[in-house]
Design brief:
Layout lengths: L3 H5 L4 E3 L5 E3 L23 H5 L4 H30 L16 H23 L3 H20 L5 H27 L1
Antiparallel strand pairs: 1-2
Helix pairs in contact: 3-4, 3-6, 4-5, 5-6
């Protein structure tokens, strides 16, 4: 261990678990990958710096929000398609404050569903602008489902709850990324 090449080749001794000296590689054996690099040299980036997110929890929350955006977009699409094709599926409320035709609601949910699905896919691809768009679309979806409550009440409440989670998760991921 007299030459600098021996030290960078992984033949130096490191203290073992009990404080004893243990060699990292025996002479003639293959050194560990990356052992030829000098200390303080190039290091592989970890997953948090590559993806731009702070932690695995943040990745999981954002991925769940994106998945729920995709599902909510599909739900909205099929709700709208059902309303456009078969208007008698939904109950028509005669004395409701917001008077819209079922056919009009169908097209509204169809369009929101398609755009929400596309934004969810873009969030999964890591697009920051899609997170902001996802928040706006989740707010629009929640408002649309609030107005749609008399036509399909339980399902509208479920979609509003999913939209609230999407808003929270995307806002938290944008906030943490800005703080990093």
């Amino acid at each position: 261990m007299s030459s600098p090449q021996d030290k960078t080749a992984g033949y130096e001794t490191n203290p073992g678990p009990a404080g004893s000296a243990a060699t990292t590689a025996a002479p003639g054996a293959h050194p560990a990958p990356g052992a030829h690099r000098a200390p303080g040299g190039y290091m592989e980036p970890d997953a948090s710096s590559v993806s731009g997110y702070g932690s695995g929890t943040m990745n999981g929350g954002t991925a769940l929000a994106a998945t729920l955006m995709i599902l909510s977009g599909l739900w909205g699409f099929f709700m709208g398609l059902t309303a456009v094709i078969k208007q008698s599926f939904y109950v028509h409320v005669p004395n409701y404050t917001f008077q819209f035709s079922i056919h009009g609601w169908g097209w509204t949910h169809l369009i929101i569903g398609i755009v929400l699905f596309a934004a969810g896919v873009c969030v999964l691809l890591g697009q920051t602008w899609a997170k902001a768009l996802g928040i706006v679309l989740a707010v629009v979806s929640a408002i649309a489902n609030f107005i749609f409550l008399p036509y399909y009440p339980i399902w509208s409440i479920v979609v509003i709850a999913v939209d609230v989670f999407i808003i929270w998760a995307l806002a938290a991921s944008i906030g943490r990324r800005a703080a990093a």
